[in-house]
Amino acid sequence: MASQFKKLAPLLNRVLIQKHEPVTKTASGILLQTSEDKQAVGKVVEAGPGQIDSKGNVIPTLVKPGDVVLLPDYGGQKIKLADQEYFIFRDSDIIGILHQ
Fold it and tell me: Per-residue pLDDT averaged across 50-77, rounded?
């Protein structure tokens, strides 16, 4: 049902991520060997405003749209929006921000 929607605005400390899939085939059709130790990496598409503490203050999320992040091997809620696959993670579940 969610695939009929085009955009999702995450609430609180949740982050919408599109995972990067490793290239397994070249343009000419040659299959590439995949590594067993590939790491889960994704790009932040949207981020919620943050978690609310016991005093009512907002603790902002630490990532912003466009950040490339390292993700845990398991977890996240898989959803489809406009025929694209995304995952929703809590801000605290993200392992780190990757920089070049």
Answer: 93
